[in-house]
């Protein structure tokens, strides 16, 4: 596993290798920045085709619904949902607001909304907004271990990220959903950091609501449309903020949907279990390859808490993290920098090869080597 | 005015002719279907450029905000707003919900939301939703003449379309806003059928809120992003459903924003007054050219009620409207059919030439001529 040849051999037998069959606009760049965009597919293909063959062609040639329906169908398959339970619309923040309000309405005698603190800051404002408009109390959950304490007969909804964005730990969504249901509350899952990389099965989990963004592992790129799941069993009684009875859809941004659909049509051809398998293998290769660099001066690998399974990301701590990120960039490897001293690597099973991961660690080794002993970032590179 | 040469002459001196300098994907087709898309600009240009030059290029090359800021700046100029008052986000239905809720919150002692019935059906659901979540009563206004009766000390917000989509009549936005303000209520304008074709000046009107879609006269095409205006004076106290304090934006669909920006960057170079002037001239040419066909069998021209000014659309009534729409399509002219017997023509000053309008009436004359006397649509074309 420690040679480039071994990585090449893994690529040769990779059943998902065909997903990478694209000509992206940035060949030679390895995208491990899960935060904003997956390795770029040539996302221009489908928007262009849509404009030329649907939009501009009369009559009623500009009907955007085939694009939308196709995208919803592929995404539903990947999430273990049915197409009628899923809407591609608005932003993930707006969809969080919507789902929290719907949850509060479905549990009228309960007045507490519990939301994991590991969501984006803007989502916390939306959660506050949902609490205000439903006359609920908002409880921000710092740690999953506190769930037991806050979960009681006053809890209407619990909103949690499937993957803790700080530690990369995967939560036991089915088990936690069951616990939430035992307390009589509803479960809302944010799939932004898992869909497209990990096994997701909203039906089996018995999730009530789910939301997520279309970028990151789903490959929809910057500003991809967001999605919104409501379990079929709630459709009759749900009365969500800002929805119509006809499928909870408002309108969707067609060009962005068309771009998103390009990657969804590839992901829709495989199972989320096979994506999860490859994610694990990529992460394992990364960690194995990193072993030789684990000494006193090399980055520390942050471990998920209490043996929770690791998702599709690895976070490294290094006191010169900012400079390492810049150095990696110079070598064509893009990772996220998290203030003050973290490097976050995201592993998208659909768009990355084993050789990509091998090369990324090779680049990290080079950059670590280039960093002179006694390097002081305040005073330049020497 | 009744010859093709005269129309050509008008095009030659048209100060807005430069806006049409585009290579759309459907040359030779005249789009008068204001409902869903303007004549197609080659909207692929900017999404493609965005993908290749911003999205795919590290580092942080996928930052979508320059696209968004550019689009907001150009749109604000066209609406008489400042960029800080405008957000390009979510769908117009969602933005209606948001603005109604914000309005209700800004007028806490008042419990009635008044909404013009001439909005899309889905918007009525969203209005109902906003009323439910704010504990307000929803009053749907059938006719502007009823405004006097419903406007009282219980009214929190009045939401109206700037242009009545049924009759094409333009409403006196400044005057009506003043009347609403005299009653202590807030004014919310839907600009979907006017922005890009008529003079709009939210600042001078003293509008409190405005919403609109990016397609129709703004040229953003099918599924273009929606927009949302909140007057500066309400920013300190506004507490809108589903917003963050940092500029009321959630995320925006970047590819669709990039497509929309392509047309906004052209529209941003002219004034809405000059757009309105050309719209009037196009409509005048259309009506003048139509005179010879105004006999017993020809379409009836629907007039706006009570001498209200006509906007950018003309509606014709004909008992074979459906067949006329199909016939026009065969001649490369796209108009909207409205059940059961109406043809709706929309005149986009930015993308249409005078010759286009001349040709459209020529095609209508041909189609009327082709329709045999005694034509029975139930039994085919003879």
From TrEMBL, chains A, B:
Positions of the Aminotransferase class V domain: 106-223
Broad enzyme group: hydrolase
Enzyme Commission number(s) from the entry: 3.7.1.3
UniProt GO molecular function: kynureninase activity; pyridoxal phosphate binding
CC per GO annotation: cytoplasm
InterPro entries, A to Z: Aminotrans_V_dom, Kynureninase, PyrdxlP-dep_Trfase, PyrdxlP-dep_Trfase_major, PyrdxlP-dep_Trfase_small
BP term (GO), one: L-tryptophan catabolic process to kynurenine
Keywords: Hydrolase, Pyridine nucleotide biosynthesis, Pyridoxal phosphate
Pfam families: Aminotran_5 (PF00266), KYNU_C (PF22580)
Top-rank taxon, per record: Bacteria
Name of this protein: Kynureninase
């Amino acid at each position: 596993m420690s040679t480039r040849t071994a990585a090449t051999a893994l690529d040769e037998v990779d059943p998902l290798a065909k997903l990478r069959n694209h000509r992206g606009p940035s060949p030679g760049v390895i995208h491990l920045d899960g935060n904003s965009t997956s390795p770029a597919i040539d996302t221009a293909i489908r928007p262009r085709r849509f404009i030329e063959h649907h939009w501009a062609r009369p009559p009623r040639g500009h009907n955007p619904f085939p694009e939308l329906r196709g995208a919803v169908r592929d995404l539903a398959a990947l999430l273990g949902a049915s197409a009628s339970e899923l809407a591609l619309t608005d932003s993930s923040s707006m969809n969080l607001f919507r789902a929290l309000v719907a949850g509060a309405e479905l549990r009228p005698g309960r007045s507490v909304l519990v939301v994991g603190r590991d969501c984006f800051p803007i989502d916390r404002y939306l959660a506050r907004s949902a609490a205000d408009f439903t006359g609920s109390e908002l409880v921000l959950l710092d740690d999953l271990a506190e769930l037991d304490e806050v979960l009681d007969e006053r809890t209407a909804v619990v909103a949690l990220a499937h993957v803790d964005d700080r530690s990369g730990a995967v939560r036991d969504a089915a088990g936690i959903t069951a616990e939430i249901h035992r307390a009589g509350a509803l479960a809302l899952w944010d799939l932004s950091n898992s869909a497209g990389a990990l096994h997701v099965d909203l039906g089996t989990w018995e999730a009530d609501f789910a939301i997520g963004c279309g970028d990151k592992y789903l490959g929809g790129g910057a500003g991809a449309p967001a999605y919104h799941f409501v379990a079929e069993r709630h459709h009759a009684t749900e009365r969500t903020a800002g929805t119509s009875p006809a499928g909870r859809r408002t309108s969707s941004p067609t060009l962005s949907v068309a771009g998103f659909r390009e990657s969804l049509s590839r992901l829709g051809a495989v199972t989320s279990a096979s994506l999860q398998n490859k994610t694990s293998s990529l992460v394992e290769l990364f960690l194995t390859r990193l072993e030789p660099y684990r000494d006193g001066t090399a980055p520390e690998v942050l471990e998920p808490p209490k043996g929770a399974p690791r998702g599709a990301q690895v976070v490294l701590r290094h006191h010169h993290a900012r400079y390492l990120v810049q150095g990696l960039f110079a070598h064509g490897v893009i990772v996220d920098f998290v203030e003050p001293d973290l490097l976050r690597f995201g592993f998208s099973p659909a768009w990355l090869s084993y050789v990509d991961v091998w090369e990324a660690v090779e680049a990290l080794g080079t950059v670590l080597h280039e960093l002179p002993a006694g390097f002081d970032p305040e005073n330049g590179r020497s």
